[in-house]
Amino acid sequence: MTNIDITFFAKTLSEGLKHYLKNEYVKVKDIDFQELENHIINEFKLPYNLQTQTPTQLLNKFTKKNYNFQKVITPQNLGTEAHEQIMLWGVLKARNFDD
């Protein structure tokens, strides 16, 4: 990704999701979230045209698989910082395809 710190992006999404799940009374495991961060980094360090998921798609698949969580997670659920990071990702991806 261009103009975005991928490690910060992954950490921000992970922390936002963890906070949201705890507020939904889901017992989370830190090891799962380290694996999630690695997965986010691996997916979003790819060129935009090779990325197969949006950030929220990736998080929704993670929560369904690891925690059997059925609610749909939106950027707004993840807190202001994660929401802003997702919006920045979307703008950068759109710019990439606009060139």
Report the strand count.
0
Share of residues in helices? 55-70%
Strand content is: under 5%
The tally of structural domains comes to 1
Unreliable stretches? none
Largest sheet: none
CA distance, first residue to last residue: 15 Å
Give the helices and strands as they follow along the chain.
Answer: HHHH
Cα gyration radius (Å): 13 Å
Protein structure class: mainly alpha
Mean pLDDT over the full residue set = 94
How does the overall form come out from the CA principal axes? Answer: globular
Count of separate DSSP helical elements: 4
What does this entry look like structurally?
The chain has 99 residues and is mainly alpha-helical. The protein has one domain (6-98). The protein is 66% helix and 0% strand. The chain is built from four helices and no strands. It has helices at 6-23, 30-44, 55-67, 80-98. Helix 1 packs antiparallel against helix 2 and helix 1 (6-23) crosses helix 4 (80-98).
Short description, anyone?
66% of the residues lie in helices and 0% in strands.
Quick tags:
99 residues, single chain, mainly alpha, 66% helix, 4 helices
Secondary-structure topology with pairs:
Blueprint: H1 6-23, H2 30-44, H3 55-67, H4 80-98
Helix pairs in contact: 1-2, 1-4
